[in-house]
Amino acid sequence: MRSVRALSAVIVAGAMALSACGGSGKDDQDKPAAQGVTVQAGNGNVTIPATPKRIVSLAPTHTETLFAIGAGSQVVAVDEYSTHPAEAPKTKLSGFKPNAEAIIGYKPDLVVISNDQDGIVKSLEKVKVPVLVEPAAAKLDEVYDQILDLGKATGRTAQAEQLTGSMRTKIQETVRGAAAAKGLSYYHELDQQSHTVTSKTFIGQVYGLFGLRNVADAADKTGGGYPQLSREALLKSNPDLVFLADTKCCGQTAATVAKRPGWAGLAAVKKGNVVELDDDIASRWGPRLPELVTTIGDAVRKHK
């Protein structure tokens, strides 16, 4: 399963409106403290002795964040799945099977990862390379905390604060604009084998912001959050909305699902309420989260 299956979230907290800030220029870079900074990450307190100039990111979400807060010029290498933004220096480095020697070859002064795979943290610490482990967010506040962590680590604190403020505001406004659609049911497709998410996952609770009802909740007998529905159960649930998170990976569209056995009779298919998501945006918990929320909000408002 793709990374989206590791996600889970809570309801958005209130926040004051702030404008977004991006770019990768150096003029607006915060001045670092002479003694460096300490960031509380998933792997504990990590001290970064000076503003990093050679960052390696092995997680697509964190790559997006680094560029969104203006630290793109400090990034020298990203993993093979970091597809956004286009200017990110993509390499053959892997976040799933990290190779310490290959990473060290880029002479990093900071490495950002989402999981400590194969003991990579200890391997890099042996050669005095600071590593930030920022795991998949379990709730929305963790999304903002991680962005702020990366801002602090890269000397981009102000930009990170502006970005999180803007994200909060955009999400709140979108949810308020679609508040009248509570009670609609939905199905979020991860693949053609009917793997999906429940309300307890990050992505499931993003849908929950709109008061949508997840047709997969009852099928999650193990409580893991990512059940596989039988075709019969899915057809019986007859969701009002279907969201496809397997468009880029697997070529699924409203037209292809309508040709599946029994699917032509689903309310969502008959009424044109099948929504084609961007797989990457739907599987990452970073700066483009408001775009996913907007897509869901649009579908809710336009529901026929």
Fold and architecture overview:
The chain is an alpha/beta fold. The chain has 2 domains: 3-163, Rossmann fold, CATH 3.40.50; 178-301, Nitrogenase molybdenum iron protein domain (Rossmann fold, 3-Layer(aba) Sandwich), CATH 3.40.50.1980. The chain is built from 12 helices and 10 strands. The chain has helices spanning 60-68, 100-104, 120-125, 140-154, 157-177, 202-208, 231-237, 247-250, 254-258, 267-270, 279-283, 289-301, and strands at residues 37-41, 44-48, 55-57, 75-78, 110-113, 131-133, 185-189, 213-214, 241-244, 274-276. It has a 4-stranded parallel sheet with strand order 4-3-5-6. A 4-stranded parallel sheet has the order 8-7-9-10. Helix 4 runs antiparallel to helix 5 and helix 5 runs parallel beside helix 12 (289-301). The protein starts with 36 loop residues before the first strand and ends with a helix.
Strand content: 5-15%
Based on Cα principal axes, name the global outline: elongated
What is the tally of beta strands?
Answer: 10
Which CATH top level class of the largest domain fits?
Alpha Beta
Radius of gyration: 20 Å
For the biggest sheet, the summary is: 4 strands, parallel
Q: Helix/strand/pairing class, anyone? A: alpha/beta
| Average pLDDT figure | 89
For the biggest β-sheet, the strand order reads: 4-3-5-6
Order of helices and strands: EEEHEHEHEHHEHEHEHHHEHH
Number of H- or I-type helical stretches: 12
Instruction: Let me know the CATH homologous superfamily of the largest domain.
Output: Nitrogenase molybdenum iron protein domain
User: What's the architecture of the largest domain in CATH terms?
Assistant: 3-Layer(aba) Sandwich
- CATH fold annotation of the largest domain: Rossmann fold
- Provide the low-confidence segments as ranges: 1-28
Summed up, the domain count is: 2
Terminal Cα separation, in Å? 32 Å
The percent range for helix content is: 25-40%
